[in-house]
């Protein structure tokens, strides 16, 4: 079983082994990553956190858990420009710095080990957490409570004041959705750090993990363009054209398709 197969197999467990799956994603990019050793490290972390948590009902321990992780050094990676290590779980465990999604996956793993109810929320631009039934969300980067007004402010900071907060932004995220979001993050980070081959690995995983958007095909088409694979680029541009309803984007896609060579070449 290769790293991709091991990652997907983690999602078939009940409950899904989300953090282990994220380690197998890291192993796709670095063969020296040992998911089993990392999982042993997480058991040690669980024991350390459990001794520091206050004596409260389990339903009230999510925020203390996040605060303990923060106190132990697990914080948002503020380095600019952001590097792929901020979204590779093995590096996050080593450096104790990462994107909010990676910190959330770590918190969800620890919450599951400690029987603390907690779920992911696919908030755009900054992944969040929630105790089921609570009237607020939690920032995985330290545990700050976020009420609707805070969420509107966060959304405005990320996307400007014209994007309204909707129920769609507050939906719980499945394990597959979280890994697909992680794969999109890595695709972008590897692309912006001039590693098209690594980005292509992430782009292909995005396609395997769930429903895709026109932007996913466009992102992979651009990688194929960089790697001089025009037939693969054509395939993805044609699929993006089928998925988009934007007339301007449809025109640009048609023009780009027209510029591709018509002769077949091998995909490498």
Automatic annotation (TrEMBL):
This is Tetratricopeptide repeat protein. Signal peptide: none annotated. It comes from the Bacteria. Belongs to the UPF0162 family. InterPro entries: SirB1_N (IPR032698). Residues 38-183 form the Protein SirB1 N-terminal domain. It comes from Pseudomonas fakonensis. Pfam families: TPR_9, Transglut_core2.
């Amino acid at each position: 079983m290769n790293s991709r197969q091991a990652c997907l197999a983690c999602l078939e467990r009940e409950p899904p082994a989300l953090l282990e799956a994220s380690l197998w994603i890291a192993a796709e990019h670095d063969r020296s990553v040992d998911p089993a050793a990392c999982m042993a490290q997480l058991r040690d972390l669980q024991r350390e956190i459990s001794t520091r948590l206050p004596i409260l009902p389990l339903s009230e321990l999510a925020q203390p858990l996040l605060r303990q992780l923060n106190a132990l050094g697990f914080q948002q990676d503020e380095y600019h420009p952001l590097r792929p290590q901020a979204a590779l779980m093995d590096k996050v465990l080593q450096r104790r710095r990462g994107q909010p999604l990676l910190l959330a996956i770590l918190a969800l793993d620890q919450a599951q080990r400690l029987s603390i109810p907690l779920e992911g929320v696919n908030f755009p631009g900054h992944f969040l957490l929630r105790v089921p039934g609570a009237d607020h969300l939690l920032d995985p980067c330290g545990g700050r409570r976020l009420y609707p007004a805070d969420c509107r402010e966060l959304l405005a900071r990320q996307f400007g004041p014209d994007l309204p907060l909707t129920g769609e932004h507050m939906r719980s995220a499945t394990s597959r959705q979280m890994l697909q979001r992680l794969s999109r993050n890595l695709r972008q980070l590897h692309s912006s750090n001039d590693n098209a081959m690594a980005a292509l690995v992430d782009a292909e995983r995005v396609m395997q993990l769930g429903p895709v958007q026109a932007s996913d095909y466009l992102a992979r088409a651009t990688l194929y363009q960089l790697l001089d694979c025009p037939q693969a680029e054509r395939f993805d541009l044609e699929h993006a054209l089928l998925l988009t309803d934007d007339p301007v984007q449809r025109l640009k896609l048609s023009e780009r398709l027209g510029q591709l060579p018509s002769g077949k070449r091998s995909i490498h």
